[in-house]
Amino acid sequence: MSNILGSMLFNASINSEANAKTEFITKYGSYADKYDKINNLGEQKRIWPYLISVLLFIGIIICYIYSKEEIDKTTNEPKPKTKSQKIISYIGYVFLGLFILSILYNGAYYIFYYYPQYRQWHASLPAEAIPLLKKIDTLETVSNLTRSSYYNRPPPV
Fold first, then answer.
1. Does 156 reside within a domain?
2. Would residue 129 count as lying in a domain?
């Protein structure tokens, strides 16, 4: 019974969120047309720099794993690194530098480009749009919580 109820709640929260977003875009989506950094819901248009940061972080972890010093089992001392391990270490350092630069770039982009446009867009919205925008935020939160509890539930007995 709880699986059926959870499934119904999950589907209802997703449908309500989609309906609220569609309503907002239909009524107030044109307010974002003059801003090039935000979409019709006030969200950032670009996601690729964040994906690059995540990929660089994964690359750093992989390079760290493959460049670790191996311990000689007979003497319990580290073996000297091979040439490929040294190359992987250098690649890891390059990834680390690029990761730091990407974090700085994303932060600067958010602070100097996205956030000012978001504030202007938000201030230009009519008063009746704000409750609908808050409703979308609430529904997204509920949807995320429902989604995580729906997929992390224990298997039926």
1. no
2. yes
